Amino acid sequence: MSINFKSEEEVKDYVKNLGTEYRFGCYQEKKPEVCHLLGDYFESIDKDQEKAWKVYQNNCDTANFAKSCFKCGNYLAIGRGGQKQDRNKALEYFEKSCTHGDMNGCFRAGILSAFISTAKDPIRTFKQAMALFEKGCEGKHHESCYHLSGVFMEGYEREKIAKDMKRCFDYTLKACDLDNMYACANLSLMYQKGDGVEKNPELAKKYRTKAEDLQDAVVKQRQLMFQEGLNRT
Questions:
Q1: Those residues with Cβ within 8 angstroms of residue 178's Cβ, 6 or more apart along the chain or in another chain
Q2: Strand partners for 156
């Protein structure tokens, strides 16, 4: 059955039925992927973050559903859904998300671990943060690869990590191949200057063009979203 999305009444009925389907799929059929969708429904449609938190938490704790674990990490990191901000618990959920296959969880756990490693009595080390970024990069998470490239571009004296432009190049190339526009821009400069790789003007131009194309795509997407917002009644 097709839905006329210009009809407010049909859209309301569709959304209501969607909520009913998600509740049945989660509470009766016990499907983790549907429970996660129910959490999203509570969060985005009902605007009830406390209900969403309960669904995400249960789905993570009982079904180990990676995306729900990631959501729990987000809620605890900033204090949403009736939860107090707790970065240590947030880290545990991000790590669980990572363990069960969500590379966003690996990246966020890496960021939090790096931050926590600077505390007086850290529960994580920067070495552990790097391992999480490595896992994310291996799982084709472009931000993880890009973050690693930055570590080796500058080095990190406190952790005795030396500047290494060859390793920086390797991670930059991986990030660019995964369409990270900042990595592509850096890759172009590296080929232009011969940093970490032999100079190659043709490849410098190729990756500069790719970075520009990716930037144009981002701008067009933002314009489209803005226009859609203006057209809503």
A1: 140, 141, 142, 145
A2: 161
Q: Kindly state the greatest CA–CA separation across the chain.
A: 63
Question: How confident is the model over 27-83, as pLDDT tens digits?
Answer: 999 999 999 999 999 999 999 999 999 999 999 999 999 999 999 999 999 999 999
What is this structure's pTM? 0.88
Pick the CATH number of 11-118 from 3.40.50.720, 1.25.40.10, 3.50.50.60, 3.40.630.30: 1.25.40.10
What does the block give as tokens for 208?
């500069």
CA–CA–CA angle 184, 190, 194 (5° rounding): 155
Two tokens at 119? 């505390």
Rounded to whole angstroms, the Cα distance separating 136 from 141 reads 5
